[in-house]
Amino acid sequence: MVDPFPGVPYSFGALRKTFGPLWVRCDSCRRYARLFLRELRDVDYRTKTFSCSICGSDGAMALEEPCKDTGMEDYRLDQRVDPQHHPAAVKRLTDPRQLRPIRYAGGELPGRKIDGRR
Ligand SMILES: [Zn+2]
Question: What does the pLDDT look like over 40-53, one tens digit per residue?
């Protein structure tokens, strides 16, 4: 018998409780960082996107440490203190003409991309 999760459904806290540590990765830089929840704990994870503070491209949330995933062994942990949004990412994410709906189909987490080059 498992105790019901006392937190907010679909929150980062619920994911953390279910899957353990959460990660955010950049497929361009092939780097990742541990996602520390702090004020995100009770936030619906489906409402958030991530971007890379180094190159500004989309970040992807990962439930497993990326370097342990097949084909991603070269991803390196690159935890930054107080990372800032890349200007290109801010522009992309705040420009209303570029807002696109998040697709929930397929069971993949938002931001996860299938990269055909791999
Ligand atoms: Zn990057």
Answer: 999 999 999 999 99
